[in-house]
């Protein structure tokens, strides 16, 4: 299982990530609030400003202090590693 570092020693399974999005839009703010109400919100920002929101296939919503750009690159790098393993 490949893991993506989302900051401060926290990691998530790369295969489970559906999207990494910016937290500033109104629809994403609603998604965050709904996840909080359902008990499906995981705050991995450790008290820092939320820079990215990870939407998981398990219906969890994860907040990260890393930027969407950084997480996207880390996620893509993990996806590339998996592709190379499949070709061997």
Question: What key phrases describe this protein's structure?
Answer:
2 helices, single chain, two-stranded antiparallel ribbon, alpha+beta, 30% strand, disordered C terminus, 88 residues
Number of discrete helical segments: 2
- Overall pLDDT: 89
Classification by helices and strands = alpha+beta
Shape: globular
Rounded to an integer, what's the Rg over CA atoms? 13 Å
Give the beta-strand count.
6
Order of helices and strands: EEEHEEEH
Content of β-strand = 25-35%
Low-pLDDT windows of residues: 80-88
Strand order of the largest sheet: 3-5-6-4
Helix proportion: 25-40%
Sheet with the most strands, sense and barrel status: 4 strands, mixed
Report, as a whole number of angstroms, the end-to-end distance: 17 Å
Characterize the structure shown.
It is a single chain. This protein is an alpha+beta fold and 88 residues long. The chain has two helices and six strands, in the order βββαβββα. It has helices at 26-38, 68-87, and strands spanning 3-7, 10-13, 17-21, 41-43, 52-56, 61-64. Strands 3-5-6-4 form a four-stranded mixed β-sheet, sandwiched between helices. A hairpin with a 4-residue loop joins β5 (52-56) and β6 (61-64). The longest helix has 20 residues, at 68-87.
At a glance:
The protein is α+β, with helices and mostly antiparallel strands and 88 residues long.
Helices and strands in order:
Layout: E1 3-7, E2 10-13, E3 17-21, H1 26-38, E4 41-43, E5 52-56, E6 61-64, H2 68-87
Parallel strand pairs: 4-6
Antiparallel strand pairs: 1-2, 3-5, 5-6
């Amino acid at each position: 299982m490949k893991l993506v570092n989302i900051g401060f020693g926290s990691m998530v399974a790369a295969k489970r990530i559906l999207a990494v999005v910016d937290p500033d839009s109104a629809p994403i703010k609603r998604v965050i609030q709904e996840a909080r109400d359902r008990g499906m919100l995981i705050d991995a920002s450790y008290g820092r400003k939320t820079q990215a929101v990870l939407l998981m296939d398990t219906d969890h919503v994860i907040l990260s202090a890393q930027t969407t750009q950084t997480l996207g690159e880390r996620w893509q790098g993990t996806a590339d590693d998996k592709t190379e393993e499949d070709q061997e």
